[in-house]
Amino acid sequence: MSLRDLVEWIPWHGLLSAVGLLIYTLGSDALHQRRHPSAAVAWVMAILMLPEVGLPLYLLFGTRKLPKAQTRSPAAPVEVDDAVAPRWARHLTASMGLAPPAAYRDLRIHRDGEEAARALHEVIDAARERLDVCTFILGRDRFAADLVQRLGQRARDGVQVRLLVDGVGALMGGRRDFSEVRALGVQVVRFVPPFRSPLKWPLRGRTNLRNHRKLVVADGRWLWSGGRNLAGEYFVDRPGQPAWIDLSFDLRGEAAAEAAAVFETDWRFAQDPRQAALGPAGGQVAHAITPAIQPPAAQMLPSGPDYVDDTVYTLLVTSFHRARNRIVAVTPYLVPDESLLSALALAARRGVVVDLVVPARSNHRLADIARHRPMRELARAGARLWLAPRMVHAKAVVIDEHMAMAGSVNLDSRSLFLNYELMTAFYAPGDIVRFTRWIEALIPDAVRYEARAPHFARHVSEGLVLWLAFQL
């Protein structure tokens, strides 16, 4: 570039940077984006230093909250006995527009992939009128092929079968074409397909928002959910490759109807975001729950761009600050933001026993690099971190004897701030103990993490990855 070209380029570059920062500022304020600090810094630096690239990327991927999420209003907390759910949890979740706790029965926490697969098939086979399936990934392996055939058989039996697959997750699972699934009579919708024309797609700026929820609901009365995608590695061993350790469960009752309501909202939104009336969350649209809720009770905790608040994140931070005895958690990716990290570390410093189980090596190398800085801080605070020898994909958190949460949320910024996610909170003491024991069973085979000071290159690489941790 000649000196004359440089002189002519600088004003246009500065003007484009100014316009980009104006768009970013006005958009963030008007849409109440409340960005994570690392995300805000990354976008501002990209737009300021290289607006020719940063501004188009922001317009494609920069939205974190949907404008219609602002229509959600707090719900009146259901006044029930504290034996159903802690008062603070009921009031906090109601203030964020979440549906209240609902009764359930016959909870089964699956021991392994084989048991999870049997339960999944039971739920599918039990449907008589409607079967709703939501997954991030639908594989192209033997397990997924058999599952698709089972869904097709239910459709031929006269059951309305609806399959919702994330647009990016479909590509990750190797499925670019769902025509063979539709030919079996299954209704299929992809959630925000990434390669649709931005001129035709009404979600410009939101293609980075993924649906990571996993649930199967039969007739609104039987729910199968957890962290497993519908692919072989989550259920069955392969030659030289044992199945991933994951957590799923199934239950019956009114709590399943709340999960069905979450699916219904996602289904309408995926079909046409312009016509989908978001409205209140879950069963608040049409409550079938009687005021006299009897224990045991569970609560659906959807989170994502369709909520004004970061619901699961807010509940986690509050729970960690309220913990008095013990916090037990399992997650494949441990890249919390500063507030969540501080809440966990402070709990450990207060004398709360904190046990966190993560895989020694996950399937995401960047997440493994980024996690060491928060892991060192937690270890210094007195938390015990356990490195499991196999890939662990389970996501669960237990707080004292008051609450257990299980579902699709990882303890990283993408899951907590960007994705559509679903956790289920359990409040029955006996079931909380069962989830605690499920996590504790991973510890004997794990190795305790020992914090070591990083060398300079490691320190720099961790910082660079953490700077972009909101995208992990």
Number of domains: 3
Distance between the termini: 36 Å
Under CATH, the homologous superfamily of the largest domain reads Endonuclease Chain A
| Main sheet makeup | 9 strands, mixed
How many strands in all? 18
Cα shape: globular
Helix-strand category? alpha/beta
Strand arrangement within the widest β-sheet reads 1-9-17-15-14-10-12-13-18
Poorly predicted residue ranges: 201-205, 277-290
Mean pLDDT: 84
* CA gyration radius, whole angstroms: 23 Å
Q: In CATH's first tier, which class of the largest domain applies?
A: Alpha Beta
Number of helices: 16
Percent helix, as a range, is: 25-40%
CATH topology of the largest domain: Endonuclease, Chain A
Give the strand content: 15-25%
Topology diagram in text:
Elements: H1 3-30, H2 37-49, H3 51-61, H4 87-95, E1 102-103, E2 105-109, H5 113-126, E3 130-135, H6 142-156, E4 160-166, H7 167-172, H8 179-182, E5 187-191, E6 215-218, E7 222-226, E8 248-252, H9 254-271, E9 297-303, H10 311-322, E10 326-330, E11 334-335, H11 338-349, E12 353-359, H12 365-370, H13 372-381, E13 384-388, E14 396-399, E15 403-407, E16 411-412, H14 413-417, E17 421-426, H15 429-440, E18 447-448, H16 456-467
Parallel strand pairs: 3-4, 4-5, 10-12, 11-16, 12-13
Antiparallel strand pairs: 1-9, 2-8, 3-6, 6-7, 7-8, 9-17, 10-14, 13-18, 14-15, 15-17
Helix pairs in contact: 1-2, 1-3, 2-3, 10-11, 11-13
